[in-house]
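Sat 14:20. Reprocessing the chain from the morning session after the first attempt stalled halfway. Input below, unchanged.
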Amino acid sequence: MNAAPLHMAGQRLMLDPAGLLAWPSEQLLVVADLHLEKGSSFAAAGRFLPPYDTRETLERLALALRRWKPARLVLLGDSFHDRHGCARLQAADCAALQRMLAGLEVVWVLGNHDPEPPVGLPGIAVAEWRRGPLMFRHIAEHGANFEVSGHYHPKAAMPTRAGTVTRPCFLTDARRLLLPAFGAYTGGLEVRDPAIAALFPRGGRAFLLGQDRLFSFPTGPLRGTRPPGTENAPSLPDGAPVLTQIGGD
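Finished this time. Tokens:
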């Protein structure tokens, strides 16, 4: 994985193509919207999905923890798909999560799907959490500065010579950073949707998740546009979009 550097509030952050944020100087890893046990939640409502989302999400999280070796882990809300999701964890998945979190300073930021702390798992549960100049919360607040959040599951669509590519993405400007959803069964909201556009009226920069690197492009102004919103994508003279491949330090 080739992470991309991002500077905010004088801090050097790293955007991981797996869809999470590292803050190396603080030994901190941040991940949003795991939505663990979404499959079992849907099954209880009669909407059957393969019950493997939690296992896949935890395996990806374990890889990230081994790669970054953080001392602190911040989960930016909606870690479970509903308030009873923690209780539905299979024994093997619960044990794996316990092993992953052992020895870490764990911060559970509460989300709209999981407004109560998980029972039996290490860490503290908070509505929002500040570290240095950065504020971590589940849902972005209008007018906030130096804020890291999740909730919206941002994705972006870009036309390429091979056709339109739509991928989860980070979205950032000088004041805030939205993280993509990390969970295996999570969908996405296009960055030009009014709910996201209102947070970035002057536009920002999207970092699309690739297999092992990120692809970056400026969004241009977002307010007042509607999905899919690729009409004003930056382009080369021959019409191919400006996609900047980002990798390394």
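The longest helix spans residues 53-68.
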